[in-house]
Amino acid sequence: MALPSYATPIQRTYYYAYLFFCAFVFFFLVAPLFAIVPISFSVSPFMVFTEGMLAWPPEPEAWSTRWYRNMIGDCSADVVSTTVPCSTKWMVGTVNSFYIGIIATAIATGLGTMAALGLSRPHMPYKALIMSILISPMIVPLIITAAGMFFFYARINLVYTFTGVILAHVALATPFVVITVTATLVGFDMNMVKASQSLGAKPLRTFFKVIMPLILPGIISGALFAFITSFDEVVIVMFMASIDQLTIPKQMWAGIRQEISPVILCMATCLVVLSIILLTTVELLRRRSERLRGIKSR
Amino acid sequence: MPIGDMLLRSVDDSQINTVFPKTFEEYRKWDKSKDELPPEEVYKALFQELASGDKVKVGRALTRMNYSKSGWKSLIKKTSRAIKKAVKKDELPDNYKEFLIETNEKWADPTYWYAMGQMINNTTSIYYWNAIDRTFDENLNVVQQEENRRVYVQTWIKTLKVSVYVTAFCLILGFPVAHLLANLPLRYSNLLMIFVLLPFWTSLLVRTTAWIVMLQQNGVINGVLVWLGIISEEGRLSMVYNETGTLIAMTQILLPFMILPLYSVMRVIPKSHMRAAQNLGAKPAMAFWKVYLPQTIPGMSAGGLLVFVLAIGYFITPELVGGKDGKLIGSWIAYHLKTTLNWGLTAALGAILLGFMLIFYWLYNKIVGIDNIKLG
Asked: Is residue B22 located within the same domain as residue B85?
């Protein structure tokens, strides 16, 4: 990509402008995420960089972890401020988010893997149609899916229940599992299934002993996608969950809408850390899967 | 399945028919050209049905009636109270028409009766007409809503406008980045890819919050600009809670969806093509325009459609960052679903949006194929 040595000055200018532009876009993509991290450690209840934080040498009084303590429900005197309410809501939300996310992920991963296995058979009828229907929750705007589900669940009395929220999240998360598992199955040698069956293994045993170890990276990254989908989801939770069924996104929404409290930034920082962990895991899994496939094709 | 149910809701009008079946039956016999007001039988049926009606069901029907003409709710409520009183005292009137008009002179107002005509069928298209700022007049012709109630057409246009802008910005910002990523050695590009994937993996609400922090009056961007002396302390830009904020935030949030498909297309374009074109005497700009760009069209259309489709149904970000004039159609859907409980209108708005969607979905499938969606 480097410029050839014979490049004209105009070409050089273009090239550096192009690099600068790309750097700007990268900055645009990640800067907001990192801007919130220092502010979450501020003493001030407003979501701004205070003068004390920018001063040099650093002023320790300008920094604190009081909002983090507020987040975990510690309402001691130095944490409470007139404008920022203190409650255990954030922790309740965290527990609920994990609870909903984990159950929904488990169901979606099971269903999605099975669907992907079925769809990758060479003689599957109506493959394209089934695939489009399975993927549709990803394409249809969330607000429409949410409205439709709300009407439907209202008829069968599932609104304002955790079951309803979990089922709705399963529907949203399954396509991600289907896509990632299908992608891993592309490099999968179907002869291995035949070999295992000819050696006398029942289908279930074949799945757990032969297929699953090989497509495990796909399943795990699909599960992570499913988890983050459910974990992030706010529209369905807002419509389908009752007022006291809090989740992190719902609490953040309320926080932005009504309170504008700096505690949101603490939770946001935690979520950024979580997404970095998840991203690294998926990336490592992808490399592992590529390596495995590379060996096989040789 | 839930979507199908929603489509049914958008035309469904049977609920009110279970409350006033006889009234509507008699109503159909009324010859509007001959008599100014409906015949005695209609009044009688209405009287009986209000006297025996289930309170909850009548209440729901009233909400529906109020959509066709405001004023129904209080009218029926008052009348029904009078009727129940009369029934209790066992004083059935000899002339139902006179009795009702006596209770409330609005029963002699033909516009109410005309409005009832909208509701006598089991299905209705009123919600769809409402969704584009139209309503029915007395003779069931479609007319424009009153001036102050027209909001949806404007919102539809704004939604489309914002989506087009966001798509264009994403393309302008995403194209060079995807190009850089595709042409760097894999080692570096995988590293830089993190910059694209990290926002992709981060919660939507976190990014929206971050933009509020960045863009607000005392926010980071204004602070930097003041510090640099580009703007004065009083001249701080208002970039959030308006359309600018929506555009900036949505562009950043949807940018990965543009970069990823573009990247996967550009990755496989052989670098020798550009060199060959330049060897044959094309200037770099010419070679880019004639050789490179046409080969990226599948990526551009895939990314563009994906971003457009996602932007058109966006709800969270415009609602939080957009303020009063940044409201898009998604906000109205949520508003009617949660606040006004006008589910028919919700469903109609959703169905129209879904219609848009399906057109783009179909286009997308035609151009790139639905199996080609890749993640990360």
From this structure: yes
Both B83 and B156 in a single domain? no
User: Which ipTM did the prediction report?
Assistant: 0.81
Distance of CA A77 to the CA centre of its chain: 35
pLDDT of residue A296: 47
Q: Which two tokens stand for residue A49?
A: 């960089």
Do B104 and B55 share a structural domain? Answer: yes
A33–B192 CB contact, under 8 Å: no
Q: Are B363 and B251 within one domain?
A: yes
Chain B contact probe: residue of A71, A139, A167, A258 with most B CBs at under 10 A: A139
- Can you list the pairs that A80-83 forms with residues at least 24 positions away whose Cβ atoms lie under 8 Å? A81/A45, A83/A45, A83/A259, A83/A261
Domain span including residue B339:
152-372
Does the structure show a pLDDT above 60 at A21? yes
Contact of B216 with B171, CB cutoff 8 Å: no
Residue in A closest to B204 by C-alpha: A232
- According to the model, what pLDDT value does residue A285 have? 81
Assign A7 to helix, strand or coil. Answer: coil
Q: Which of A35, A145, A231 sits opposite B210 (nearest CB)?
A: A35
What does the pLDDT average to over B243-256? Answer: 89
Give the total number of structural domains in chain B: 2
Q: Higher model confidence: residue A255 or residue A165?
A: A165
Query: B189: pLDDT confidence band, cut at 50, 70 and 90?
Result: confident
Separation of alpha carbons B275 and B271, rounded Å: 7
Say what the pLDDT of residue B166 is. 93
Given a cut of 80, is residue A91 above it in pLDDT? Answer: yes
Q: Distance of CA B130 to CAs A19, A84, A230, B348, Å?
A: 50, 42, 34, 9
- Indicate if B97 and B184 belong to the same structural domain: no
Going along chain A from its start, the domains and CATH numbers come out as 89-297 (1.10.3720.10)
How many whole angstroms separate alpha carbon B32 and alpha carbon B38? 8
Asked if the C-beta of B376 comes within 8 angstroms of chain A's C-beta atoms, the answer is yes
- Shared-domain flag, residues B292 and B330: yes
CA–CA separation, B38 and B23 (whole Å): 11
Task: State the pLDDT at residue B59.
Answer: 66
**Co-location of B220 and B298 in the same domain:** yes
Query: Which CATH number do you get for residue B270?
Result: 1.10.3720.10
pLDDT of residue B375: 45
CB contact under 8 A, A29 and B256: yes
Would an 8 Å CB–CB cutoff place A117 in contact with chain B?
no
Q: Is residue B346 part of a domain?
A: yes
For residue B162, being part of any structural domain is answered with: yes
Residues B208 and B97 in one domain: no
- The model's pLDDT over A236-246, given as tens digits with 9 standing for 90+, comes to 888 888 777 88
Residue showing tokens 């008829």 = A155
